Structures are given as structure tokens and as C-alpha cells.
From TrEMBL:
It comes from the Eukaryota. This is Zinc-ribbon 15 domain-containing protein.
């Protein structure tokens, strides 16, 4: 008997935008990336969430914005 569970997380980039400021590590430009996450179990979507991330365009680090 073979039992297979197919769990998957898809991450799709919706858009990229330039943001003001500079990376504190390398001084590169900062980009805002809108990302949509989708979790599915046996090809049935269970969870959708959109997030906004800040990334450095030069070194690729994920930056944390403090308000």
C-alpha cells in the first residue's frame, strides 16, 4: 500500500517597486516586492496570503522596516 500526501507552497511575485532609502549593509537601492503565498494539500488550495517584502537590489538581503 502506497500513501502519498502532496503538500505544496507556491510563492508568486505580483510586482516590484522602487522604494526610498538605501540598504544599511551595502548601500544599494531598496525594492518593495509584493508576494502571494498559496498553500495547497492534494492540489486543493487551503490558504492564500499576500505579503509585502523589502529587498536590497544589490546584495539581495531581506530588509526589516521599523516604523
Amino acid at each position: 500500500m502506497c500513501l502519498v500526501f502532496v503538500c505544496d507552497q507556491d510563492e508568486r511575485v505580483i510586482g516590484r517597486y522602487a522604494a526610498p532609502g538605501a540598504c544599511p549593509y551595502c548601500g544599494g537601492a531598496v525594492q518593495v516586492v509584493d508576494v502571494e503565498n498559496q498553500w495547497s494539500f492534494c492540489f486543493v488550495p487551503l490558504y492564500n496570503k499576500s505579503k509585502r517584502r523589502h529587498l536590497c537590489s544589490t546584495c539581495g538581503r531581506r530588509l526589516i522596516v521599523k516604523s
